[in-house]
Specification:
Blueprint lengths: L1 H23 L17 H7 L3 E14 L6 H4 L2 H10 L3 E14 L3 E4 L1 H4 L4 E5 L5 E10 L4 E6 L21 E6 L7 E12 L9 E4 L11 E3 L5 E8 L10 E5 H14 L5 E2 L2 E4 L7 E6 L4 H5 L6 E5 L2 E2 L3 H9 L6 E8 L2 E8 L1 E2 L7
Antiparallel strand pairs: 1-2, 1-4, 2-3, 3-6, 4-5, 5-6, 7-8, 7-10, 8-9, 9-12, 10-11, 11-12, 13-20, 14-15, 15-16, 16-17, 16-18, 18-19
Length: about 350
């Protein structure tokens, strides 16, 4: 009896050892690789933080105290005291503060459009303490992206773009910026979800992160573990106004091409078909519910009642999906539009027009 019991205990112990080994290996299937948390984020932070900047915006208002309208949480912050020393009580009004990051050593900075608003003056603070005036090179309200330019005696530390499409839910990230006016702050977390649509416009495609971000973080970068920017912090959802672990960033795959256009043209030029569509079509696609005969679609021969199923081979399922696909085509370029008409599939070449600013498609 004793020997049998000992044998059973030995067998159980062996099983537990095997189970422990499996758990230590991550319980992974053959060929899978488990990515653990880094021992420290310090080397990454030292690498990328010099490229992160604080942005203060100033609007001239005659006879107004510059600091009367400063948000309460910023009045006694380092940036608030710094601005008070610099501008005193001159007739200026502080609209707010935000974050940005340098993408070119010549002084090109990316931020949110809502950070700069309609400011008369923009002051950029670097991590080394320097404050530089900035000018707006271009802005895009539809995606909330703006590009600034500062001039410095020498090259500035810059960061590069990563591929947000390669990021997965559960991947580690760090967010950097200027929460509550406290410059040079970082927070760590993971990607919580992808492709979030917050209903703010046709180009919503946010990355959701759980790294704490707060007022002042807007326009700051979200880095992958290689130190590349994979998103631009844009907004949070919170019942209190402070972080509850639900923040949203604009993917780098969206921002990068926009920044190139804003630097070159000062605005984003998007493709346009000139159609009104509805979704929920059996078999997929969107229904052409209306169009202007003089629009690019009308001139190409697309008709009301056609079901548009693809743009340049990209499957279309929703109106916003159509808007994004067409907007990615430079105005004046040809694109093949797949439609289903009375049960027959066909492709129609269309010369895409330039999207008016007051249109949804």
């Amino acid at each position: 009896m004793y020997m049998n019991r000992a044998f059973r205990l030995a067998a159980v112990s062996s099983h537990m050892v095997v189970l422990l080994v499996v758990l230590l290996l991550g319980g992974c299937a053959p060929g899978a690789v488990a990515r653990g948390a880094p021992d420290s984020f310090a080397p990454l932070v030292k690498k990328v933080l010099p490229s992160v900047v604080n942005i203060a915006t100033i609007e001239t208002v005659v006879g107004a105290d510059a600091f009367a309208a400063l948000p309460p949480e910023l009045r006694d912050s380092p940036i608030g005291r710094q601005l008070r020393r610099r501008f005193g009580s001159r007739p200026q009004k502080i609209n707010g503060a935000g974050s940005g990051f340098i993408v070119d050593p010549s002084g090109i900075i990316v931020t949110n459009n809502h950070v700069i608003g309609h400011a008369d003056q923009i002051v950029v603070s670097l991590t080394d303490g320097r404050q530089l005036p900035a000018k707006v090179l271009g802005r895009d309200e539809l995606t909330d992206i703006a590009v600034l330019k500062v001039t410095a005696p020498g090259p500035l530390p810059a960061v590069g773009w990563g591929d947000s499409h390669q990021m997965e839910v559960g991947d580690w990230i760090i967010a950097a910026g200027n929460p509550f006016g406290l410059g040079g702050s970082v927070s760590a977390g993971i990607i919580s979800a992808e492709g979030r649509d917050l209903g703010s416009g046709p180009f919503d495609n946010f990355i959701q992160i759980d790294a704490p971000i707060n007022p002042g973080n807007s326009g700051g970068p979200v880095f992958n573990m290689a130190g590349q920017v994979i998103g631009v912090t844009s907004t949070i959802i919170s019942p209190t106004g402070a972080s509850v672990g639900i923040g949203f960033a604009i993917p780098s795959d969206t921002v990068g091409p926009l920044v190139t256009q804003l630097i070159a043209h000062g605005e984003v030029q998007r493709g346009w078909l000139g159609v009104a569509v509805t979704d929920g079509v059996e078999g997929g696609g969107v229904l052409i519910a209306g169009l202007d005969p003089d629009s690019p679609a009308g001139r190409a021969g697309i008709r009301v009642g056609d079901v548009l199923t693809a743009v340049a081979g990209e499957r279309i399922e929703t109106p916003n999906g159509l808007i994004r696909a067409v907007a990615a085509v430079p105005p004046g370029h040809n694109v093949r539009i797949a439609v289903r008409r009375q049960g027959h599939d066909m492709e129609i070449p269309v010369t895409v027009g330039r999207r008016p600013t007051d249109r949804t498609e």
